[in-house]
Amino acid sequence: MRTEEIKFEYQIFTSSDELAPEDKTLVEAARAITAKAYAPYSQFHVGAVALLNNGALVSGTNQENASYPVGNCAERVLLATAAVLHTNVPVKTMAISYHNMNAGGKSHKPVSPCGMCRQYLREYEERTKHPIRLILTGMDGEVFIINSVKQLLPFSFGSEDMA
Ligand code: THU
What we know:
The chain contains 3 helices and 6 strands, in the order E-H-E-E-H-E-H-E-E. The protein is α+β, with helices and mostly antiparallel strands.
């Protein structure tokens, strides 16, 4: 028997004012695009904006449905859009923010991408052969930067497991 440990490093910024200008711009865009979420059921408005390796910006918001499981998260809406508009172009950085109307519009803690989105992001990294840098934030407060989604999904399942 042996025990292994998995550790990963991420950066914590006290506020978006501490970010490099390019990252701050992405965070501000992600916060702004939360206004375009379609979230009448959860009242949890999520916005994501990504900078691609070709310099293009792509955005996504959550799109809910009266049949709840049909809804899509902002991250997957963004990646599906990028896959069509900029096929095979890697995503350099994705900023994700949210506006929680259940908490009076407050969102001080960085958003946490759901498990399904982590899996989707992980496959996007694989197919474009490039890590996706994630910037997680709310409308204000701390900002986390994570260098690859693989860190958020240890022991993940991918195409190599089916070879
Ligand atoms: N949601 C996202 O769009 N991204 C996340 O990272 C977390 C959750 C959405 C799904 C659903 O529309 C709403 O937020 C509440 O779960």
